[in-house]
Write a structure and sequence with these properties.
339 residues, mainly alpha, elongated, disordered C terminus
Length: 339
Amino acid sequence: MRTERNLTRLDRVFARLDREPERPAHIDVPKMSRHRVVLFTATLAFYLAIVWAVVITSWLVRLDWQVMFFRPYQQWAAIHWFVDYYVVLGQRGPTAVMVAAWLGWRSWRQHTIRPLLTLGASLLLLNITVGAAKLGMGRLGPHYATVIGSNEMGLGGDIFPSGHTANAVVTWGILAYLASTPRARRWLSAASAVTSLGVGMSTVYLGTHWLSDVLLGWAAGLLILLALPWCEPFIARAETWILDLRDRWRSRRGVPAPAPVPVPVVLKPRPAPVEQTAPEREPVTSARAPRSPIHLAPGPHTARSERTPVTPAGSRRPQHPERPARGTAAQTARPLTGG
């Protein structure tokens, strides 16, 4: 008897990974709406205002020096160990690995590589924009300041805007951007805002950034998140190109294409029964056709004396085969007595 081999858990995992990627129909791609354009414009204006306030050495620079002389890491030394660990949530390497692992699991579950491509596009924009601003303005940090009260611009530094803060905004905000439901998007947006706020304040506490660096880092990260819908067409083209490249590679190696994924059937709940009065029961008619009356064919009637004697089934009287039947010739041959 031939039996099929039971699939192990590892076999099921590889079978699922080999399924054809497809874009989920219920997940919407964010678009550049009018509300988003207004937010992008306001954030860009805030970004330029911070840069101008630092360039002209305004009250914001004086506030930076006051916070630096306050030395928060000495005022609240008891939480120094916690801040040292918390600031890691803004470092590029650890956060990118954690978020990429989560988005990779989502890509495997949804059979699309869009989450990973969106993360890659956001990190690319972050490196280009923030990196160019850092090198272009060349501001020194609080630990390397040379002249008290100056803006320390153009001296070869690389801390304006804050990379930790911008990275925290983009890395954790991408989870809210890729959320599949409005409720999840609201909760993840609030969580990413609190996380990035804490990371920015941690750098000010440790004395590695000015307060204006953190403000500009928040604006830089938010600009990238708000501009991501403009990158969606390029992300879709990149996904199509990667899948076509995979198909060509499979055809060259002679690997058969996986079977198409069956569309799951959505079961709808059965409606509640409506109370109705029971209808009157109709008489049940038999499906069998009515029998025609039986007419016995006419024939000669047999006299009782001519019938074969039959002993009842329950009779104890033995049969007498030698006894002649009544009304036969033997009975008529009996001698007559008497005169």
